[in-house]
Amino acid sequence: MAKKEKIKQEVEQASHVLAEIISWGFFPPLVATVFFIFLVFWYASDLSEGFSWLITVSPFLIFIPLIFFAISYKLGWISDIDLTERKERPAFLVVFVASLLILSVTLYVIRVPQKFFVYAFSGLIMTTIASIITLYWKISFHTAITSSVITAILVLGGLRFWPFIVLIPVIGWSRVLLGKHSVYQVTGGALLAVFITYAVFYLFGYRLFF
Questions:
Q1: Does the pTM of the predicted model rise above 0.85?
Q2: How far is the C-alpha of 11 from the C-alpha of 8, rounded, in Å?
């Protein structure tokens, strides 16, 4: 009996460690930024143009949200990197949404390819709506951001990339296991992101092709 309890504890401990790794690996700003940088160089005509775009938008995509987050953490406005307390989310999300708005306008002004702009714009719309929801219900940004990125991958690259969908329940499992969200919150984040992201692409004339 004691041996079974020990095995159970070891499995639980291993599961917790794995969940932590997954949760950190798919930290929402990291996922969004990495995919954005990938699109920068995918759609740029050459490396020079890609770096030019990146330098132009980096303040809004990376530096402003990161600096505000660091200051908020230092001053005790937020207690942890996950913004676990729902009441701690509004100030950061206002700054993040404002940055995404400026980012989208900037991409439009510098005339990046439309597909690239639409991805950024869909991220703005999705994050804005999710931010409003989180004022009343702590929806999962981990599943929302990843689901938004995966939806964009499927629309832009085709359904041959469908295996990426497996990441969504895996990330949801990690958030629930760590006690950060309920099953409904991770599911809600995923469904919201898929619906909004695809709807924005659809309105601009981009569809999933089977």
A1: yes
A2: 5
